[in-house]
Amino acid sequence: MSKLPGNAGVSVLGDKSLEFYRDPVSFYRERIEKHRSRVFQCRLLNRPTTFICSVQAMRELLCGRLCSLCIIVYVCVLVNLYLHVSGEEACLLRLSLTSLFSGSCLESSSDYITSRQPECVYSVFKRLGTELVLGLFLNVRAEEQPELFQEITQLCTQHWHGLISAPVNVKVPLWSSGFSTALEARDKLMDIIKDKLENDTQGFVGTLRSLPLPDSSCASQHLLLFISALIPKALASLLTSFTLALSGNEQVRKHRQKRAIEDPDYLHRILLEVQRLWPPFIGGRRIADKDSTLGGFHVPKGYGAIYISHAVHRDPEVFQQPDNFLPERWSGRNAGQEHFLCSFGSGPRSCIGSKLNDVFLKEACVYLLKHYDWCLDPPSQDLEYKWLPVSRPTNPPTMSFTRLDQTRSDKNYTS
């Protein structure tokens, strides 16, 4: 068992959180090159932290019997989101989510591409994600209750943006800190959620209210998490990356589009490769409550352990040509290795809604592939990615979509 490469630094002065959040990809790449190791230590959130950038160490952290790493904390944002969910409670939630896989719950929203001018695809897909989330989890549909839908959307945005701001609760006349505004938005959302739980008997709300959860507040807390801006942003991130991945060379694009329509397995491989290269979340973090081992290195008690999904997905020991978009890898060398991806955790510590997310993505992508052709508009755009709070191009790209049932002479572009 070896000592971790790198230096954990001293309290406060040695903290590297700001550097990490400014550019997490450059942060980990510089240290991998410096330490010649995909596992190293640094100080994050003023705690000595083990950074995990290899598939092997990620699997040990999330899928092994490392009961000493006991606190689940997702570092998807600039603050920690603590999810205290017991094994039994998580199983109940997983079972309740199965009710969303049938009936009309996942009918395609066929009119979400409506504009006649090129628009920001990320915004279009985030709107779609919001409609899906609020419809599925709260029985609130934009076309039926537009005012309530708009109110919840705005409150979710305020709640999200406040959470990723400095945790300073200040409120004075004519001004409130972002964190204070987030707390107010949370309280208003909780009032709406509690009203739904008390009065709605249909759909997921009705299912959740009937579960034998530990206390009366659990259902409300879970619904607050499910409807937060986090899920629509994740969907928008992946759908944006999907459309970008198929918007390059016209000949290659048309070949991949044709294959994806004809072969569901090939579409699955495309989505795996999109998730591998552009994971929506940067990773997750846990805390060691006793000495442990990860990737052959000693992790002392009290250390954090953060896996970086962008780095894990580019581990050259597992993924050849790691920076290239190659859907074919999932039917070749990496066939059956989907569990090496960790965008939504992995193994027993995976997101309880990851399968539902897959259904969302496939529904939307199949609809797009069958009904539209698309391209960047204008053709030359800056597609450099930012990775926090969710991955997407720093300058949101705009695209034009053409209905496949229109003639080529029809220049009616929509987004």
UniProtKB/TrEMBL annotation:
<dbReference type="Pfam" id="PF00067">
    <property type="entry name" value="p450"/>
</dbReference>
<dbReference type="InterPro" id="IPR001128">
    <property type="entry name" value="Cyt_P450"/>
</dbReference>
<dbReference type="InterPro" id="IPR002397">
    <property type="entry name" value="Cyt_P450_B"/>
</dbReference>
<protein>
    <submittedName>
        <fullName>Putative cytochrome P450 120</fullName>
    </submittedName>
</protein>
<keyword id="KW-0503">Monooxygenase</keyword>
<dbReference type="GO" id="GO:0016125">
    <property type="term" value="P:sterol metabolic process"/>
</dbReference>
<keyword id="KW-0479">Metal-binding</keyword>
<dbReference type="GO" id="GO:0020037">
    <property type="term" value="F:heme binding"/>
</dbReference>
<dbReference type="InterPro" id="IPR017972">
    <property type="entry name" value="Cyt_P450_CS"/>
</dbReference>
<keyword id="KW-0349">Heme</keyword>
<dbReference type="GO" id="GO:0005506">
    <property type="term" value="F:iron ion binding"/>
</dbReference>
<keyword id="KW-0408">Iron</keyword>
<dbReference type="InterPro" id="IPR036396">
    <property type="entry name" value="Cyt_P450_sf"/>
</dbReference>
<comment type="similarity">
    <text>Belongs to the cytochrome P450 family.</text>
</comment>
<dbReference type="GO" id="GO:0016705">
    <property type="term" value="F:oxidoreductase activity, acting on paired donors, with incorporation or reduction of molecular oxygen"/>
</dbReference>
<dbReference type="GO" id="GO:0004497">
    <property type="term" value="F:monooxygenase activity"/>
</dbReference>
<keyword id="KW-0560">Oxidoreductase</keyword>
